[in-house]
Amino acid sequence: MKVKRFIILILCCWNSTYADVGLKELMNAVHENDLYQSQLSYQEKAKKEHESSQREYFPTVDMIAGRDSRLKKTSYEPYNSDYIGLKASYILFDGFKKEGNIASQKSAYDAQMNKSEFTKQHVLFSIIKEYYTIQNAKSGILVLNYKLKELDENIKNITVLVQHNLATQDKLHAMIASKKEAEYDLESMKLQLESSRLKLLHVTGLPLSLDKEEEFLQEVVPKNGQQRADIEANKRMAESLEFAASQYTYMPTIAVQYTMKNNTYSAVEEQSGTTYLPKQNSDLSLQFSFPLFDAGKITKDKEAAKLGVLAMNQEIASKEKEAMMEQEIAQRALKAARIKLDAADAALNATSTAYEYAKKRFRE
């Protein structure tokens, strides 16, 4: 008995929580969508990578430990030298690789922000589409129910007329066939409604209240020159690839290092007297490196990066053409939808009027 009451309580809480789920609540739930959340995680990852690239301007400090072994030595030098210490390094110049990497990571971060926004828009569009598919199905079901009532009334009346030889059997059969077709359309509408309802549940995690009054969105006129978020993301990604390509260079690298070591030596074969070997020492070095031979690797890497930029720009051009075409189709579809909505209202009114007229006529 207690378990039964507990189940009833849970159901009551569930109904009270989701009793008024409409379009507004569904659209607000976009922030909990798994696909959108994954893009936000990628966005946070790109942000951290950009922040990490900016740290390249700072020096690095490492703890070092090892052993130096001499294959050829003088008699007063040790065979082995064990050491532990600290090493500070700073790159003075690297052929503008740091600047290229920072700019590349910044563009990649901007690209990911646009991807997140596009994903949000895509999920919102799916919610709105399925919501109005449900509203259209509800209207269609209402019309078909009226139509079935009208057909039932007409079949009943024509059956009476056929029994008195005032109408032919083919009219009765045609009316029955129309009813079967309407019943099929009704089941198709119910399936469409349930399918869209489950899709909304999957996208938002909220069950739509089918008895809630239909909500309408304010029509938004797109701004001139406004880019689609996915196209803007691709443009930023093309910039990122272009900056990345600039990092493949044969320019020299100049670095400064300062090392402090604490040494331990092996036995020493002294020629005479006692040779003093320092327990602690420090080194300051300025290093200059320049790639002389790499079998053309840097050149090939740069060519590959430039081809990546070219491919991305070609993809952007294709998407821009596709976006223009889709915008034109969407405007025509909006116009057709408005006409269809007016036709549906007219059909509902006509069906209701015909049904009432048929009932009134045969009752007289």
Q: Major sheet: size, sense and barrel closure?
A: 4 strands, antiparallel
Query: Runs with pLDDT <50, length 5+?
Result: 1-18
Please, what is the average pLDDT?
A: 82
Proportion in helices: 55-70%
Question: Strand order within the widest sheet?
Answer: 1-2-3-4
Number of strands: 4
* Total DSSP helices: 7
State the separation between the terminal residues, measured CA to CA: 57 Å
Radius of gyration using CA atoms only: 38 Å
Structural class call reads alpha+beta
Shape: rod-shaped
SSE pattern, N- to C-terminal:
HHHEEHHHEEH
Describe it for me?
It is built from seven helices and four strands, in the order H-H-H-E-E-H-H-H-E-E-H. A four-stranded antiparallel β-sheet has the order 1-2-3-4, with no helix packed on it. It is of the alpha+beta class. 63% of the residues lie in helices and 13% in strands.
Give the SSE layout:
Blueprint: H1 2-18, H2 23-28, H3 34-54, E1 60-69, E2 80-93, H4 97-163, H5 169-204, H6 229-245, E3 253-265, E4 280-289, H7 297-363
Antiparallel strand pairs: 1-2, 2-3, 3-4
Helix pairs in contact: 3-4, 4-5, 4-6, 4-7, 6-7
Characteristic key phrases:
4 strands, 364 residues, 13% strand, single chain, rod-shaped, 63% helix, disordered N terminus, 7 helices, 4-stranded antiparallel sheet, alpha+beta
